[in-house]
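hi! just following up on the protien thing from before. the input was this:
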Amino acid sequence: MSTSGSNRKPWLLTAIAAVIVIVYLFPVYWMVVTSLKTPPDIFASPPNLFPDPVTFQAYRTAVIDNVVVQRAFVSSIVIASGTMLLTLVLATPAAYALARFRLRGSGLTMLLLVLGQLLPAIVIAGPLFVLFRRLDLTNSYQALILADTSATLPFAVIVLRPFFLTIPTDLEHAAMLDGAGRLRAFWQIVLPLVQPGLVTVAAFSFLIAWGEFIFALSLNLNEKIQPLTVALNKFSGQYGTRWNEMMAVATTVAIPIVVVFVLLQRFIVNGVTVGATKE
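and the predicted 3d structure came back as:
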């Protein structure tokens, strides 16, 4: 009896997991399907699970022929890429220092980083607006990149530090005995060994900045550099009942997220797992 029960258990767990995945992915599927429907088909009763006929007119109207959306797409790439690069530049040496050196207050620093992740973006947006206005940085890419980095940096340091802890210090000492300085040993020995952590941080930093809305809305009034999240919000007001066009823009926003996860899935899963278990 126990053997039969144990044989059925994996199938039961698989079925439960499949149901959960379907429930979570159905809104995404419905978003894509709606973007491929004609306006009358959207309001059909009962609703059609498949578009009939399939039309790409919403993509042509809302994305291909829409200069505002195209400009916002470029702005999102600039902001997300800038945030990713700045996060890596700042988080990598910070995580290395916290892992290698016995710094006074390092425990408090890690606690502050954890607490920093708990702060809602709306709480930080106000002080950042005042600071950037005094520095004349509002309505600029720099402001949005710095603001998004303030959200991604704590996460990046927390994830990267365990990776550096897993690297034996003997490797660096051996390199320095061969004549390499600490910086060269760090660059040539340590960084290649923490590549999964770097890829994980880069991917999540890009995705967090890609989907950020509060900073993009509160720190920038220049329509020429507004990202897709803000453009989608305005698009919603402009096309109040044209759901196929709205969903076409939303699908366009989601495509880079899917591409990043598909291409870097192995690195992301491995990076999160190693970073979480080898503290």
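Residues 91 and 157 are 5 Å apart (CA to CA).
The chain has a mean pLDDT of 84.
cheers
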